Records
---
Amino acid sequence: QVQLVESGGGLVQAGGSLRLSCAAAGLTFSNYGMTWFRQVPGKERELVVGISWSGGSKVYTDSVKGRFTISRDNAKKVVYLQMNSLKPEDTAVYCCAAETAGSYHYWGQGTQVTVSS
């Protein structure tokens, strides 16, 4: 059974930092690209950043460039999202997804990030 479990969310003041983790089980982690999405109630889900299976390629949405950093540890089967200089507009539920060939096969449940002004 494949599981993706996010952790690390919480409440932080604007300008602060959080580090999210997404731990994978039940799949050959290094075969998958991994992507962080976020969603606010009433709005479409937004792709935040993706990382290739090797970690050699990363794609960030413009609004987080220079503030967020994605990384992965294939030995530990974990993908991380370091979020710095957080803004109230970063408030959302963040979830991770495992991808091959542009298709997202597995999703986590998400972790809430709330940034207060």
---
Amino acid sequence: QVQLVESGGGLVQAGGSLRLSCAGSGSVFSGTMGWYRQAPGKQRELVASINRSGTTNYADSVKGRFTISRDNAQNTVFLQMNSLKPEDTAVYYCNYQKIFPRVDYWGQGTQVTVFS
């Protein structure tokens, strides 16, 4: 059974940094891992993703500020968030896209709150 456990959220002042971690278990994790976020009253959106080869994809709103990385040996994905803004406030969810069968798995979410 695939499980994703996030950690690292919290309260931070604008301009500060946070590092999110997501540890996976129950699978080989050969597919793409990523981070999504959902702010109150808004749809869940992709923040960043990374495949097993290290190819990354970022939302325009976080390019140059956030960095996603992955440790394949530990089935762990990280999100380094710098220069945080109040609009980054959201619940951040770890995501794993299993290749076959094609299934999405989600973590429980971790709250990130940025105050000005």
